[in-house]
Amino acid sequence: MKKIFTFLSIAVMLNACSPTSKTLKNEPATYRPAYHYTPEKNWVNDPNGMVYLDGEYHLFYQYNPFGDKWGHMSWGHAVSKDQRTWKELPLAIPETMNVDSSTTMIFSGSAVVDSLNTSGFFEKGFTKGMVAIYTSHIDKKGTGLAQHQSLAYSSDKGRTWKFYDKNPVLNIGLKDFRDPNVFMYEGKWIMIVAKPLEFMVQIYESSNLKDWKLLSEFGNMGDVAKIWECPSLFKVPVENSDKSKWVMFISSAAEDTEFTGMQYFVGDFDGKSFTPDAQEGVLRVDYGKDFYAAIPFNNLPSKDKNPMIMAWESNWTYAPDIPSEGRRGMFSMPRKLSLVNENGKFHLVQKPVCSDKIQTETLTLKVSELLESKTLEMPSNSYRLNLTIDLENSKGFSVDLLKNGEEKSVLSYNIATQKLSFDRIKSGKIDFSKKFPSVESMKIIPQNGIVKLDIFVDNSIIEIFANGGRAVLTDLVFPTTKGGNIIISSLK
Ligand code: FRU
């Protein structure tokens, strides 16, 4: 018999540290997220060199130590013991000045634990050496750009770094050649690196991280509306089976190809080349505008069999213009990945790794029983909303988030189109860029007439995981006041 859902449960967990309700309502909003990582100040973009070592998860990232605009790119650093709370550490790898007074910026890349000292950078028998493989980006006034791959190494768990004195280790003479992602595969190092303007990646191998041999190329497939950046390649377990497939991530265009976004390919890797499965259309990692440059963690403990990723939450189209509080840019919560096999086609499933201290509203309801709108008064703009919605006898529903006066960020689901849309046109500050106000949508197929949404609202970011992470939408918003309400209505 079909279960009748009604307002069965409304569980509210208040974060022990958060101020009590009302006090915050209607005060000017803060945009610093409460449970997403962002540094104290300055500009950030891509996550870099994410790696686990000795009880610590390391997040390095593109960082400008001198201000809240892109420039002087260096690697910032944060660590976490639990994947949920992050502690900022001093700058890890700084931009350097060259003898001709040009600078070498430290662009995106990855980090590995060289436990066998294959690089020879460490003392004999030392198993905890970290090596960063990054793009050395030189802008020589007059003669133009050069991009090549270089190494730095650390014997103190990423706190201090030395540059390899024979950098760069990989230079093919291209001006655009960047974002190396390195991992260990059957006893050898594999690097995947982008030739952005050609929509190509190259795959190399090495035994010592210093000498690289080209194995294969892949590209000119899927979405080529924007340049290809930040590639990665990793094995993902298939749910309800003992199998896994290889997934390639590419940062390029979003569903609306005027914007940056991410796509993925599913296929096989034989140690030399990547062979994609046949696919229909483009596979999107996230259907929002603000999820870019995600890469996986290296060296995860063996109990973590699912790869874990983090992304930069912004979009190059307006990233330099978003409201700044002396800092600009933030990172997603980590997401754990698996694949589902649907009639022989594999799709990504993403599960957020989140703190259990977030204020959480859990609501199970049947839309057709919603005679009036249901309002939840929220004391702050930082919470999690877990919705299980039975759509029987209804046309769909809408959820106003951060609703205060005319301001709202609106999520709506229409059964006829099977589309879940997110509308930030009236979300608050939007006039810093003509490109910011937008509506995005993703297709959600109800499961047994039910749609499940796990919605994370954190001051200036909203991440929506639908149907257990089968589709995800991430968007920035800038409400002007604190304590906007949640209003749930049925679609008339
Ligand atoms: C992607 C990117 C990378 C580059 C870095 C520079 O967001 O353009 O390709 O390495 O940012 O900050």
Question: What does this entry look like structurally?
Answer:
The structure is a single chain. This protein has no helices and 35 strands. The protein is an all-beta fold. The chain has two domains: 42-352, Glycosyl hydrolase domain, family 43 (Tachylectin-2, Chain A, 5 Propeller), CATH 2.115.10; 357-490, Jelly Rolls (Sandwich), CATH 2.60.120. The chain has a six-stranded mixed β-sheet, with no helix packed on it. Strand 8 and strand 9 form a beta hairpin. The chain is globular. Residues 1-22 have low confidence and may be disordered. Bound molecules: beta-D-fructofuranose. Beta-D-fructofuranose binds next to strand 2, strand 7, strand 11 and strand 15.
Quick overview of this protein structure:
By secondary structure, the protein is mainly β. It folds into two domains: 311 residues, Glycosyl hydrolase domain, family 43 (Tachylectin-2, Chain A); 134 residues, Exo-inulinase, domain 1 (Jelly Rolls, Sandwich). It contains no helices and 35 strands.
What's the arrangement of secondary structure elements?
Layout: E1 10-13, E2 42-53, E3 56-64, E4 74-80, E5 87-93, E6 96-97, E7 103-113, E8 130-140, E9 144-154, E10 162-163, E11 178-185, E12 188-195, E13 200-206, E14 213-219, E15 229-237, E16 244-253, E17 260-269, E18 274-276, E19 283-284, E20 292-296, E21 308-312, E22 327-328, E23 335-342, E24 345-352, E25 360-366, E26 374-376, E27 382-390, E28 396-404, E29 407-414, E30 419-423, E31 439-443, E32 450-458, E33 461-466, E34 471-476, E35 485-490
Parallel strand pairs: 2-22, 25-27
Antiparallel strand pairs: 1-25, 2-3, 3-4, 4-5, 6-7, 7-8, 8-9, 9-10, 11-12, 12-13, 13-14, 15-16, 16-17, 17-18, 17-19, 20-21, 21-23, 23-24, 26-35, 27-32, 28-29, 28-35, 29-30, 30-31, 32-33, 33-34
Beta-D-fructofuranose binds at residues 45-46, 62, 73, 107-108, 135, 178-179, 229-230, 293.
